[in-house]
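FAQ: What does a ligand-bound record look like?

Like this one, built around 1,6-di-O-phosphono-alpha-D-glucopyranose:
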Amino acid sequence: MTSVATTPYTGQKPGTSGLRKKVSVFQQTHYLENFVQSIFNEATELKGGLMILGGDGRYYNTHAIQTILKMAAAFGVKKVMVGENGLLSTPAVSCLIRKYKAAGGIILSASHNPGGVDGDFGIKFNTANGGPAPTLFTDAVYERSKSINEYQIAEADDIDLNHQHSCSIGNMHIEVIDSVADYADLMEHLFDFKTIKLLFTSGLLSMCFDAMHAVTGPYAREIFGKRLSANPDAVINGVPLEDFGGGHPDPNLAHAEELVARLNAGPTAPGFGAASDGDGDRNMILGRDFFVNPSDSLAIMTANAHLLPGYKLGIRGVARSLPTSRAVDKVAETMGIDCYETPTGWKYFGNLLDDNRITLCGEESFGSGSDHIREKDGIWAVLFWLNLIAVKQQSVEDITRSHWQRYGRHYYTRHDYEAINSEVADELMQNLRTQTTSLTGKEYAGYKVQLCDDFSYSDPVDHSITKNQGIRILFEDESRIVFRLSGTGTEGATLRIYIEKYVTDVTLHDMPTQTALAELIEIANDIADIKKRSGREQPDVIT
Ligand code: G16
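The answer part, i.e. the structure of the complex:
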């Protein structure tokens, strides 16, 4: 074991989901080691305990794993379970932590951000409940990173990650495990695989899942291919690559082009399509020539969960992040269950799940999940939809349209202005903040402001308060605009504007989304003065 002298780096503050930076930033001398040691120094429960380790396979994944293993041995971790080839999806890590009662886990991923030498890298810590470390913990890690002056590392050879086996570094035992098996078993326990399999074997449905050359490839091949006997071409881009094949592993209409083209190919197109992101926790659901908005997906799941084996006892409550549309609120109201509104970030759902207040939760950013683990879960969402199709014997589009018919439709869009100057973005938000009190009662093109504030969340379980989570403007007709800055970008600031409009009249459920929201988009531009302040005419990404 060696102690290495080091000096602190500024800016090792974890964002919405761990520390994300350019690969070149992580490659600076001792940069990774400083942050990992700061985690260990804070997570003392790892000493003498079990740790789960793996990542999404992006460039720098195996290098980081080898380093972390040696540092874990020096720190006194008793045992590490690491995924074969260094691969573990974020939901699989959460599943393994819970199943094997680990003290915590480290996940190497920058999620949906591009990879490769010039791309992004990231590191997240999950606690013993399987969920992302809470802000209190990440803030403490950041504090430690500001004054670190040494780290400990074992002098040892790299271990072989390419096949399942056991070995050790010093007193620390290492098990290189099957990345998929435990997770796939959990899925089989939650869903009716027999009925789903029948959909495929009887030729009633064919599917296309885009793994985007990221971590879900092996999971999808095992679950959809082997266990569910889906059509032979069910999984595309299924081999994990260090640069995701040059693509952007973000499952949305802009980045999953190949999948969208296949689903829109006319009457012979697959009846079901889906994609996941770099680390396998996001999902996009498509029908033939039909897109399911993630906020709608959460609402539809909530309304139908009782039809599926894992949720047949009903659901306790639901939660959604602030910017997620209020479609699920309507369902919760009808069902008479609680619906919580949290800040953006999966970590805010942890207490609600642990305290048994909710069963399902989700976010507009293509994330949904349940109390089966403590992360959002891409493959789980795909299986949920497949099981629903099997039970209802309806297409994705029919399921969604009947939902709108019953609960009304929330037209929804998100406009992103990426990599804008951070000062400009801060000023824009500050300007909105100063308007919060004066906007109430004002009218814009017939939309009257009912409430405007800077969202603050009071956790009902640990009573912590999280302030300044986004400006929300609520109109009297239930339309809503939310402004916030992203916490996952690695370049400048990303301004996100979330716009929704609630429409109950079924004859108005067929408008193109941007048309249905055109007036509100204009109002958002006016109130925030976006074009003038950002110097941009159009958003970079619309989802
Ligand atoms: C992360 C968080 C999510 C959050 C998303 C977007 O997702 O885990 O809870 O909704 O970022 O965050 P932002 O709007 O701040 O960029 P992931 O999939 O990137 O880990």
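Follow-up question: can I read anything off the structure? Yes, for example: The chain has three domains: 2-179, 183-407, 409-542.
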